[in-house]
Design brief:
With about 290 residues, this protein is an alpha/beta fold. It is built from 10 helices and 11 strands. The strands form 2 sheets. It has a 9-stranded mixed beta sheet. It has a two-stranded antiparallel ribbon with strand order 8-9. Helix 5 runs antiparallel to helix 6 and helix 5 packs across helix 8. Bound molecules: ketopantoate.
């Protein structure tokens, strides 16, 4: 199969290298480059990738690991020309978009992961083993069968992959964990593990209750105490890491707060209920990251 990896952040780079290692044909579509190829170092080995440009001319599996604020422009760009028959789009990003059910192509798949990776210059480090879930993005397709070849390649490249007809449930869980950790690491300007010293359980429970209300309103059942417990576990497992949001703030990049706590606050208001704890975190991070 031909793969085009979009997004050369940590996860995109890790997937590109791992697909190559299992013998897949992989090229990369970076956001900007003047070069004719890109090299990524992984485990002291350098991997060279050719550059893909759009429109695609042959059936291609697109693996896009991007920031939430890049999704709309990416989908717009991909919609300029029909994808060749046999292509698919696998997309992965933190958080949720207000209009995503309207803009997601019919055959798009969400990929959700707990693998941890970071990039340092052109090297990618697989910092924490996790697992991933793949499922159809459109709820109407949720129970359709899985695309066997794509599933198997992604599973071989970066195990363990689970097929998930309820990918939305996974996405809400991930959204919740990010909402319960990322903003707090920015506010306290600390590593994930240092959050444990700030006695945040009560504040996190209120944030989680608001998320659960919205999730339930959208047909997804989550339990606030369980989410806080999961976040606690993630904080312990990633104690030495800086969250992606704190890294964004430190490197003066746009954060994903609008798509995490901001999403919860806005969408709760649309559904007729305030979410003051998420709103507060949203505003605090916006204020800290207003450069
Ligand atoms: O996904 C993460 C992130 O930093 O965005 C967590 C789970 C908080 C781990 O750092």
């Amino acid at each position: 199969m031909h793969w085009a990896v979009i997004g050369t952040g940590a996860i995109g780079s890790l997937m590109a290298v791992n697909l190559r290692r299992i013998g897949e044909h992989v090229s990369i579509k970076p956001r900007h480059t003047n070069h004719s190829s890109i090299s990524i170092i992984h485990n002291a080995h350098s991997y060279e990738f050719s550059i893909t440009t759009l429109p695609l001319t042959q059936p291609t599996q697109i693996f896009a690991a991007v920031k939430a604020y890049q999704v709309e422009a990416l989908l717009q760009e991909l919609s300029q020309a029909p994808l060749p028959e046999g292509s698919s789009l696998i997309i992965s990003y933190n958080g949720m978009l207000d209009n995503e059910s309207m803009i997601m192509p019919e055959r798009a798949l969400h990929w959700v992961t707990t693998h941890g990776a970071y990039r340092h210059e052109n090297e990618v480090v697989h910092a924490g083993m996790g697992e991933s879930w793949l499922g159809w993005a459109q709820v109407e397709r949720a129970s359709s069968s899985r695309p066997a070849e794509v599933f198997s390649a992604l599973n071989n490249a970066l195990p363990l992959l689970n097929w998930s007809p309820a990918i939305n449930q996974r996405r809400w869980q991930k959204l919740a964990v990010n909402c319960l950790i990322n903003a707090f690491t920015v506010i306290h300007n600390c590593r994930n593990g240092e959050l444990l010293q700030h006695h945040l359980q009560h504040d996190q429970l209120v944030v989680a209750q608001e998320i659960c209300w919205l999730a339930q309103h959208r047909g997804v059942q989550l339990i606030p105490e369980k989410l806080v417990e999961q976040a606690h576990q993630v904080v312990k497992n990633t104690a030495n890491n800086f969250s992606s949001m704190l890294m964004d703030v430190r490197q003066r990049r746009q954060t994903e707060i609008d798509y995490l706590n901001g999403f919860v606050a806005r969408q709760s208001a649309v559904a007729g209920r305030a979410a003051p704890a998420n709103e507060k975190l949203w505003r605090q991070v916006q204020a800290i990251s207003a450069f």
